[in-house]
TrEMBL record:
The lineage of its organism: Bacteria, Pseudomonadati, Bacteroidota, Cytophagia, Cytophagales. Gene3D superfamilies: Spore Coat Polysaccharide Biosynthesis Protein SpsA, Chain A. Coiled coil: none annotated. InterPro entries: Glyco_trans_2-like, Nucleotide-diphossugar_trans. This is Glycosyltransferase family 2 protein.
Length: 318
């Protein structure tokens, strides 16, 4: 049996690297794949680069759309996919040569696993042979390595993401079950997608093999996001966690209570950090913080933050 793997690649102005990504796919030891590139309204040469590959390799297909965001692009790619297995891949990232071979083999032999995920490395474009286990290049491997479903997986995802988007290989049924990526999510779409899979009963299994890796490129395009905007996106996502946990049929009442308490604590901690580091003289930042919580919570943390900043200023003046 040789199942098809659908590799779904959203691209927005990545014409400068997408050719390398497509050559990387063509070099995979597993060859029964289709690559679906969704151009999310690029204004560069993405279309010209990709069409050169489309003209010479029937496995590669190209679908342009107006700019709707990465989640919408992935969802369109999934609608066009024919594969038994789904590999999401950002247009600037790469896969180790045997990643698909090893993961397909694992999923074929382990029908109880819905999502096989692997380790990752980060690399800089101008230094491709130097690898890091984390985005900040601090030599800290943040990846949780589990084999579980239900509470254990959801408990991990309450605190943080479980994998970069190109690490997992998924059975198409789980993508269908959660209706793809959440198009309403900003900056947390990958994390929220894995969470939705988990509360819908997906079994995650880490494949511990040195030849199964995804390689994440570090460059200026993906380091320029405003940290406060990303944190605001996380707070909005944490509000949605409540409904998703409550509606899950794969969690007991006691498990739901524990998870919701942990989510509330994480929400409180993040909001406190954001308020304490906000510019309280900025109406724009205050409007943002006000929109993320209740009036009572906003006022309480506003005065706590003022007191925190007052104490910090006093310490500096001594």
């Amino acid at each position: 049996m040789n199942p098809i793997v659908s590799i779904i690649i959203p691209s927005y102005n990545y014409g400068f690297v997408i050719g390398e990504t497509l050559r990387n796919i063509q070099d995979q030891s597993f060859q029964n794949w289709e690559a679906i590139i969704v151009d999310d309204g690029s204004r560069d040469n993405t279309a010209a680069v990709v069409r050169q590959f489309v003209d010479t390799d029937a496995r590669i297909r190209f679908f342009p759309q107006e700019n709707k965001g990465v989640s919408a692009a992935r969802n369109l790619g999934f609608q066009k996919a024919n594969g038994k297995y789904i590999q999401f891949l950002d247009a600037d990232d790469l896969l180790s040569r045997d990643k698909l071979t090893l993961q397909v083999d694992f999923l074929e032999r382990n029908p109880d696993t819905d999502i096989s995920y692997t380790d990752h490395i980060y690399f800089e474009t101008n230094k491709p042979d130097i690898h890091y286990p984390d985005y900040e290049m601090n030599h800290h491997n943040w990846l949780p390595k589990i084999d579980a479903r239900g509470y254990e997986v959801v408990n991990v995802l309450i605190y943080s993401n479980i994998a970069v988007v190109s690490s997992p290989l998924l059975r198409r049924e789980i993508v269908e079950k959660v209706n793809g990526f959440p198009e309403y999510s900003n900056y947390t779409e990958d994390w929220e997608f894995w969470f939705l899979c988990a509360v819908n009963g997906a079994r995650y299994t880490f494949l511990n093999h040195p030849d199964a890796l995804t390689m994440i490129r570090i460059h200026q395009r993906n380091t320029s996001r405003n940290i406060q905007i990303m944190q605001a996106g996380e707070l909005k996502y944490r509000k949605r966690i409540v409904a998703n946990v409550q509606q899950s049929a794969f969690l007991s009442g006691e498990e739901k209570e524990r998870l919701l308490a942990k989510n509330e604590a994480s929400t409180h901690k993040l909001y406190k950090y954001m308020m304490y580091h906000a510019n309280l003289a900025s109406p724009e930042q205050l409007r943002t913080m006000y929109g993320l919580t209740s009036f009572k919570t906003f006022v309480s943390f506003y005065f706590k933050a003022l007191n925190y900043k007052r104490k910090a200023l006093f310490k500096k003046s001594r």
